[in-house]
Specification:
Helix content of chain A: 10-25%
Shape of chain A: elongated
Distance between the termini of chain B: 51 Å
Number of strands of chain B: 12
Order of helices and strands of chain A: HEEEEEEEHEEE
CATH class of chain A: Mainly Beta
Oligomer: heterodimer
Structural class of chain A: mainly beta
CATH architecture of chain B: Beta Barrel
Largest sheet of chain A: 10 strands, antiparallel
CATH topology of chain B: Lipocalin
Number of domains of chain A: 1
Shape of chain B: globular
Number of domains of chain B: 1
Helix content of chain B: 10-25%
CATH class of chain B: Mainly Beta
Largest sheet of chain B: 12 strands, mixed
CATH architecture of chain A: Beta Barrel
Number of helices of chain B: 1
Radius of gyration of chain B: 19 Å
Chain lengths: ~260, ~200
């Protein structure tokens, strides 16, 4: 894995150096528009079940939710009509939470600090974890077809990031209990992984305006998170969605489109 | 006018306090029946106070139901009566273990049962089985009840109720037929509404 990553990095640096002398450069801004997450609930928290497997309508007062958004600014080194290389900076935001639902709006978490014969439950509205990562993406885009201003492409990429901020919080159902927030968070001591590595593929189409600006959408983009332990609540494996991109020409060395 | 305002405030506060108490209590009084994948139609063994119990009576399930109080603990003199109430073969059914030598004054004193195994064929235990309108005093051939864990359930640092969890099994003769009560388990919340102490 390390050899592959190193080779990719060296190749990209070499290619981008070549690209700066021999091709046009655009500035691309990408962001995730709409996405769906595929993941599994972690079993680190001791949460009292509320559903009854014998009832007609399964009711679960606990929901786990995950949100991932990203925004990147990437210089695009366009070698030819068909081939482009991207690199730059990307900010990824992750938010995972447990939420109490329905009329009750709370759930019970069992403490691990119990005296003899005692079990302590905390009644919570939510447990939330957020983390932000700053990454360097390295991406190759191939555009086999251009027609009347439209272009159709596929892209493949890898990004490497580091954690720049993280936060955990627990909200009690009764406000006067909020002083025990640290006791709840200490039930599962957790820090998100300092590194974030993802790979992604996308196919999409774009439209180039007369001023050279191109608007594109990857439908879909599929991102696989290779690193683990970003949250004690949910393990996110895949992110699938629609990525929107805006590309602005900076230096144009192409003789024709 | 002031009196009416004060009365209104008192009524509102009472509702709020009573409502808050009922909210916590209501949720913890619910039965959470999670089926055991290894023993179909029986609840899993748990120690959460899920207010469930279950046992196979010759492979047919006798289990707790949402609409019936699953357990009542009644202490009379020096005997503790542990009543499990549920349904068997579509009829309301109860299983009662009357255990001499235990007389807690309150449900939090049920800690005396923590990790206690009781031989059901012993002289200090009587077992009764009621199915529909018929009650049987069971002659136990062999078997035991194991009160595996007692817990005082605190919610937000406030004592709410006691939890008794455990297992049981025994063999007996029921209606002139040798019968096995097997894979029995219980996880029950015991508090103000299902613990009774009689001094006589």
């Amino acid at each position: 894995m390390k050899k592959i990553l190193l080779s990719f990095l060296v190749l990209s640096v070499g290619v981008s150096s070549y690209a700066q002398r021999n091709c046009s450069i655009h500035l691309s801004v990408d962001g995730l528009g709409v996405g769906a997450i595929d993941g599994t609930k972690e079993n680190l928290w001791d949460i009292r079940q509320t559903f009854d497997s014998h009832s007609s309508y399964e009711s679960d007062y606990l929901t786990s939710k995950s949100l991932i958004k990203y925004l990147s600014i990437k210089p695009e080194f366009r070698f030819s009509d068909k081939l482009s290389l991207y690199t730059g900076l990307q900010y990824t935001y992750m938010r995972n939470c447990f939420l109490g639902e329905y009329e009750n709006g709370f759930f019970y978490v069992r403490s691990n600090q119990n005296a003899e014969y005692e079990t302590n439950l905390f009644r919570l509205k939510n447990i939330e974890e957020t983390a932000g990562y700053l990454s360097i993406p390295i991406e190759v885009k191939y555009t086999p077809l251009r027609f009347q201003g439209f272009n159709f492409y596929g892209r493949l990429g890898l990004d490497f990031g580091v954690n720049v901020h993280s936060k955990r919080s627990a909200e009690f159902f009764q406000a006067e209990m909020q002083q025990y927030e640290a006791d709840v968070l200490n039930i599962v001591p957790f820090s998100p992984n300092k590194l974030l590595v993802t790979t992604y593929v996308g196919i999409g189409m774009g439209y180039k305006f007369t001023n050279g600006v191109t608007l594109s959408a990857d439908m879909p983009t599929v991102k696989r998170i290779l690193t683990k332990k970003h949250s004690s609540i949910i393990k996110v494996d895949f992110l699938t969605g629609i990525q929107l991109s805006l590309s602005i020409p900076l230096i144009n060395k192409e003789s024709k489109e | 006018m002031k009196t009416y305002i004060h009365l209104t405030l008192i009524v509102i506060l009472s509702f709020l306090l009573f409502g808050c108490y009922n909210e916590k209590d209501f949720e913890l009084n619910q039965s959470v029946f999670i089926e055991d994948s290894l023993y179909p139609e029986l609840p899993i063994y748990s120690e959460w106070g899920y207010n469930t119990f279950g046992v196979y009576i010759d492979r047919k399930p006798f289990v707790s139901r949402e609409y019936i109080t699953p357990v009542k603990v009644i202490v009379k003199s020096d005997t503790l009566h542990f009543n499990l109430n549920g349904t068997f073969n579509g009829k309301q059914t109860s299983l009662k273990f009357s255990i001499k030598g235990y007389s807690p004054n309150n449900h939090d004193e049920l800690s005396v049962l923590n990790d206690v195994r009781i031989n059901l064929s012993g002289e200090n235990v009587e077992t009764y089985f009621t199915n529909g309108d018929t009650t049987y005093h069971l002659d136990i051939l062999d078997g035991e009840i194991h009160f595996k864990k007692f817990q005082k359930l605190m919610v937000d640092k406030e004592f709410m109720k006691s939890i008794l969890s455990g297992t049981f099994k025994f063999r007996t003769v029921l209606n002139n037929e040798p019968t096995a009560f097997a894979n029995g388990r219980f996880d029950l919340g015991i508090g103000y509404d299902n613990f009774f102490k009689f001094n006589n």
